[in-house]
Amino acid sequence: MPGQNQLRIIGGRWRRRWLRFTAIAELRPTPDAVRETLFNWLQFSVEGTRCLDLFAGSGALGLEAVSRGARQAVLVERSQVVVRSLLANVDRLQAGSVVRVIHAEAQRFLAGKPEPFDLVFLDPPFKSMLAERVCRQLDSGGWLTDGALIYLETDSHCSLGELPSNWRPLRAGVAGAVCYRLLRYEAAALAGDD
Q1: Which whole-number Å values give the CA distances from 190 to 130, 139, 184, in the listed order?
Q2: 21 and 27 in contact (C-beta within 8 Å)?
Q3: What is the Cα Rg of the chain in Å?
Q4: How far apart are the first and last CA of the chain?
Q5: 124: which residues sit within 8 A by CB, 6+ positions away?
Q6: What is the pTM of this model?
Q7: Could you give the CA distance from residue 103 to residue 120 in angstroms, rounded to a whole number?
Q8: Buried b (16+ CB within 10 A) or exposed e, 84-97
Q9: How many whole angstroms separate alpha carbon 154 and alpha carbon 174?
């Protein structure tokens, strides 16, 4: 039964399963319609990937990816209260073998030893101004496989600075206060092979 602090996985093996999350001021789950659009864009690109959900919050993006065939997801969240909700959802889905929850601040996590990911979800708190900085850390830190897909969600009124030059825009949309983009990381562009 849906409640105020619940959302539903849209597709895959956990389709129609409900996730519960703790309501805190900065937690703003990606709207269902936006998630549905995103995973329609990704429908042939999720299977077998390693995913990073860097501002995990409710965990909806990373858990949706695993539901649709991603082989592994790492959910990074700075709030201990929210981490407890994430761990409860991972336990409820019996996903502990494929989903790892890390209690850390995003920039501090990215300052650690890189693990390359094929699919990255970036949905920082809207007023945090972290999007551009985190994109640069991902780009320069060895966190992305060649051809990795990056989903970036920001405030539709936010002026996003310059993204790394080797991140190719693929799709974009706006839904209410949310602006969302899908980009591809191209390592070859770094070597000047455009």
Answers
A1: 23, 10, 13
A2: yes
A3: 16
A4: 51
A5: 54, 55, 106, 130, 131, 134, 154
A6: 0.90
A7: 17
A8: ebbbebbeebebee
A9: 10
Domains of the chain (ranges plus CATH)?
6-190 (3.40.50.150)
pLDDT at 120: 98
96: which residues sit within 8 A by CB, 6+ positions away? 90
Confidence of residue 26 (pLDDT cuts 50, 70, 90): low
- Which residue is listed with tokens 């455009």? 194
Residue 167 contacts residue 139 (beta carbons within 8 Å): yes
| Per-residue tokens: 35 | 């998630």
CA pair distance 194, 191, nearest whole angstrom: 8
Residue 34 pLDDT > 90: no
